[in-house]
Amino acid sequence: MTSAGAEFDLDAPRAGLDRRLRAALGEFMWVGGATLLLFPLSWWLRAAWGVDDAVLAAGFVTFHAAYVINDPHFSVTYLLFYRGVKARLLSRDFSSAQRARYWLAGVVAPLGLVAWAGVALGARSAETLGWLIQLMFLLVGWHYVKQGYGVLSVLAARRGTPLDGTERKWFLLHGYAAWAYAWANPVMPAGMFEEKGVVYSAIAHPRWFELSAGALLAASGGALVYTLASKWRRSRRFPPLAALAGFLITLWSWTIYSAFDPVVQYFIPALHSVQYFYFVRLLRGNEARAHEGPPHFGPSARARLGALTISALALGWFLFRAAPSLLDELVAPRAGAANMLGATPFFAAFFVVVNIHHYLMDAVIWRRENPDMRYLRAAAPERAPE
């Protein structure tokens, strides 16, 4: 159609809407929505193949997928955290509190964790390494809910509906209550357990702890529902769907009831990793685009993200495959059934140390005080980030 010499495309508004819907759907799937598709798929597989075969297939797929999903999700944290770490430790451009966090997570924690694991391996003490394993299991719930809260906070701000102080308080409290309940449940006595070949004695999870944590979870959930209802009455607005779904799926499906479906359970670490990658891509992609032009004239965002991907894959392979396998072959003692550390003690030690260190580094990287977070605070564009 032409009017007064100007040509108008009547399909343009619809194309723009379709693009925004695709971007919103893609964001929803990246930050946790894909979990909802796995439940019916799991039901179909268990009905068609039987539970045992479906679980075996899920374990096979996720074991090999870990090379390109789970392992790089850990290693990319090192690439983010230690980039320019000297300035982060010493520069006055960072607050004293932020520098202290970098010292603790970047220097003190890894030295302490490596020393702990080294003493356990040197003494061939499954009990000592077992305490480190229990610390990992305690902190993994904290790590998941912190990431879920980060998804909510960042996406809500990017979509123009940032959380206010009251909302942040109740979302955080509900997240911490979910962490406590996930740790307390199920009730179990102290006993012997095995993880990555290490047989260790674990502490009991008493009934009173589960009941207390469950009561806190219920109370915080009620307060959160009331807070959101009040927000709707005041402004007729909720947090964005992807943001709220990412938070609730992280808490309820990945943390509290992670064992609800035996097939989906295998995919939770991968889903968590994909959620993490989405924000790494936003952070480093937006940063790269900000430095493409003058006065920096840096490499393109595609080149920077490509280099980051290759580096994360290589470092992940080294940390979880090459280094521990080599040490287990060359150094690890072979004591048969009497060896409570199992046949792969270095793999167990690497796995636990990297996990815990990853949790601690993440708690520093993604804080609002970190100057790099300005690349996440920008309002979301109408199309999906490239």
Give a structural overview.
The chain has 386 residues and is mainly alpha-helical. The chain has one domain. The chain has helices at residues 12-49, 51-65, 70-81, 85-90, 96-123, 126-158, 165-184, 207-235, 241-256, 264-290, 301-330, 345-365, 374-377; strands spanning 2-3, 6-7, 191-195, 198-202. The longest helix is centred in the N-terminal third of the chain and has 38 residues, at 12-49.
Provide a compact summary of the structure.
The protein has helices at residues 12-49, 51-65, 70-81, 85-90, 96-123, 126-158, 165-184, 207-235, 241-256, 264-290, 301-330, 345-365, 374-377, and strands at residues 2-3, 6-7, 191-195, 198-202. The protein has 386 residues and is mostly helical. It has a two-stranded antiparallel sheet with strand order 1-2. Strands 3-4 form a two-stranded antiparallel sheet.
N-to-C series of helices and strands: EEHHHHHHHEEHHHHHH
User: pLDDT below 50 for ≥5 consecutive residues: which ranges?
Assistant: 1-5, 380-386
Number of helices: 13
Structural class: mainly alpha
Overall, the morphology is globular
- Count of domains: 1
Largest sheet descriptor: 2 strands, antiparallel
Neighbour order of strands in the largest sheet:
1-2
Mean pLDDT over the full residue set: 89
Distance linking N and C termini: 32 Å
**Proportion of helical residues:** over 70%
Strand content: under 5%
Quaternary structure state of the chains depicted: single chain
β-strand number: 4
Q: Tell me the radius of gyration.
A: 23 Å
